[in-house]
Amino acid sequence: MGLRVAICDDEKGICEEIRKRLLSIKPVYEIAIYYSGKELLQEKERFQIVFLDVHMDDLNGMETAELLRERGMNEYIIFLSGYREYMSEAFKVRAFRFLNKPIEMECLKEAVLEAEREIASSKKLIIHVSGDIFIINKKDIIYMEAFGDGTYIFLKKGEMIRTTETLKYWFDKVGTEDFFQVHRSYIVAYSHVKGLRKTEVEMDFSKETIPVSRRKRISFKKSLMEYITKNRS
Description:
Blueprint: E1 4-8, H1 12-25, E2 30-34, H2 37-42, E3 49-53, H3 61-70, E4 76-81, H4 87-92, E5 97-100, H5 105-121, E6 124-129, E7 132-137, E8 141-147, E9 150-155, E10 160-163, H6 167-174, E11 179-183, E12 186-189, E13 193-196, E14 200-203, E15 209-211, H7 214-231
Parallel strand pairs: 1-2, 1-3, 3-4, 4-5
Antiparallel strand pairs: 6-7, 8-9, 8-12, 9-10, 11-12, 13-14, 14-15
């Protein structure tokens, strides 16, 4: 499952070039293109990586990044520019990388793969709910359940957080190393699996059993055994 990536540059040719290069690195990336900072800021979808041109008319890249951060967005921002003097400003908005134009393929590949590694290894999640911010450890998540376009996140202490993001959004966030989607509406944490029946999973800290779809049972069982073997102390 690929990361969601936004490319924001007022030069259409550059946007298309970056899109093609990213897909050549990993075809599963989900890529959206925006030709202005205002257009990007109007988007309700959240991204994990944002390529942002510094020089844009009306609202430049630095201003766009500042507004993203003010809204609590935690995307990995990779700035694009032909001028190195903007590098110091980039750090003020917690930029992840600064790529010089014309962009070299190896630099682009290194930047996006390193961002992906950091996202996958992140131990904490930041959740925005009605203006409030919750910071939780991934290890505290027992399972996630889809409802409509949102997701319930169930935690060890019996807490449940209702989020407006989709189950797919959260699966991209937590990654496949520690979690498995056992059903179209459920994701479980390997570390909290207590038992596997024919059609259900028993979880620690929960009285509820989680349904396992028939077509996913075999692959889940195999992945679970691999996880247990790898993490056996």
